[in-house]
Amino acid sequence: MASDSKEVEVDMAPLFRLYKDGTVYRQDPYSRLLPSPEPDAEGVASKDITLDAARGLWVRIFLPGSPTSLNLAHEKLPLVLIFHGGGFVFGNPAWSNFHMFCVSMAKRSHSIVVSASYRLAPEHRFPAAFEDGFSALKWLHSQSIHQSEGNHELTEPWLISADFSRCFIAGESAGGTLAYHVARMAFNTPYSVASWMPMCMEGLVLIHPGFMRGTRTQEELDSYQDVFMNWNTADACIQLTLPQGCSIDNSYFNPLPIVSSPDCPFTLPKTLILLADKDALHFYVLQCVEALKDACCQVDVVMEHGVGHVFFIAQPDSEQAQHMTQSIDHFINKDHKVLL
């Protein structure tokens, strides 16, 4: 661990400390898994690809089966770009818990899952994470162009089976906030749906998104808190991620000012928002849902009961986690089910 003799500015021991000299100490709470080029015990293969070495950006691709067998079968699968959580301060696509969540998603929805890294705060404050998420989306767009033009030399072999007309953006916790911003940037000025052809973004999946505001109700303050979500940790992460002098009510964490503005046309792809009733964040997210609906966005909400923030990380086999993944599968495939 970094020396305790140095003066600490932000302390989230034992996992994180920011020292007043600007140095940062992090400790992973989960082990990091290597990719599995051949299908693992769940029948899902994975591979890492560097997108931007200078920024340290990379993705982990998950395929529900062998890359060779999928290519030979000419099977086209939906594509999901997903972002991990961690308060924009922690997290990595290789973390065992998130790796296994992506394995489950790829297997359950029979989709190609692309888990993207992004730079973390406080070394890289906002808007760095949003820029990195948007870069991952633009990389997928370039892949869709290579595929449509038959440019096999530039096409990533593990994406040959991707159906770029069925793309989804997803994220959990902070990654849900990031996914929301990437979709907002992609669908609104200066971009539009036409900007992304031949890729088509069919939907947005927000899992326990970290939408917050400067004031909190007593209901929020009194709600259940645990290691995955408590206001002390949330406030520390906010302090570390926002640009100097920026308020939490900036649109980075709080979507309402933009969504509710009559002077700012706003649109999103159809959206599925997954919540938990013991998550302190869900109260404000529901207010944001109503604002999105008022802005004519198509939004569906699925609430799990008796569980807290990102419960599926610690309880992947719970009834609520199974129902949640079933909801995601249905959202991705409901218009494309093949009857056997």
Automatic annotation (TrEMBL):
GO terms for molecular function: hydrolase activity. InterPro entries: AB_hydrolase_3, AB_hydrolase_fold, Carboxylest/Gibb_receptor. This is Alpha/beta hydrolase fold-3 domain-containing protein. PANTHER family: ARYLACETAMIDE DEACETYLASE, OS07G0162700 PROTEIN. It holds the Pfam family Abhydrolase_3. Residues 80-312 form the Alpha/beta hydrolase fold-3 domain.
